[in-house]
Amino acid sequence: MMRTNDGGPRRIVVISTGGTIASRWQGTGYAADASGSDVLATAPLPEGVTVEVVDLFNVNSSRMTSAHQLALLRTVHETFADPGVDGIVVTHGTDTLEETAFLLDLHHSDARPVVLTGAQRPFGTGDGDGPGNLYDALQVAASVRELGVLVVFDGRVHAARGTVKTQTLAADAFSDPSAERLGRVGFSRVDVERLPERPAPLSLPDAALTVTPGATDPGATPLPRVDIVTHHADGDPLFIRAALAAGARGIVLEATGAGNATPEITAAVADAVAQGALVAVSTRVPAGPLAEIYTGGGAVDLVAAGALLTGTLRAAQARIAVLAALLAEGDGATDPARRTALLRRLLEGPVRAEPALATGGSRSASAVVTRA
Questions:
Q1: Is 94 an active-site residue?
Q2: Active-site residue 262, yes or no?
Q3: Phi, psi of 280 (to 5 degrees)
Q4: 61: annotated binding-site residue?
């Protein structure tokens, strides 16, 4: 569905959550404390864009919790209940941005975009990248439709799925190591080079309707625990068993190679599945898909034990997929077999779309409009 340029202003809501883009010097280091309005004041607005700010919370993203992410998910859906809103920009810390973006995307069914951005250099610094990233994110949010949740950073547009933080400090912080970028933004234009691959969206989980970060409600149902366990030389089943003992309902095994571990770990995975836990296998290798190649504790045996391979999703986003499957009671996933089938769909995603070129007004992908 293409949006026509009717000449009217684009109304964008900026939801502020903290991170480096909102961080100021605290005497011994930086921490998030600037308001969304303060952050917005550092960036010029694209022509034809009006902005409203929602200060949701203000945390360094290394302190992000599932409760924070679900509160943001709820706020996004509440914001889009207003048909006059054209798009949403979320300012977020970079450490866990890839997890939040993927959770939002798994539940995003609206044609209007959600764009996450942030900064690698703190608020108010002379060489800060936050203002430019925010300007670009506003431009993208005002320009595209039908692309789901996006990450905009350093002039690049990325799909939420598969995009991870690949640089600790450099300005070009994000990429999908297994796929090309989605597009680019600059000089008041947005060019989309391919369409994202996205599974059918999930319904909003019931937990998102009631959870509040930091609140204690004795009557509330605890959010499901999902742990990540990394395999390495001398790796053993200890932490898989510890996760189960701690009450984990889901485990992501960050395996080696194309999804390989040991016979002992495979046996622990089989035990976890028998106890009703969802187990997904990712890899610590930066790029490429998982594959059933090796036995002797490899992916062949892990799949036979009941684990699911994560395709090109890495551990942090695979954990989000497991969490989403566990929260998806409204999607018929209370039955273990149906829950496993749902997780398989979230991990595999649809077949990758053919590349689509969108430059200026010619050969535009149907999902995008480029505004001069």
A1: yes
A2: no
A3: -120, 145
A4: yes
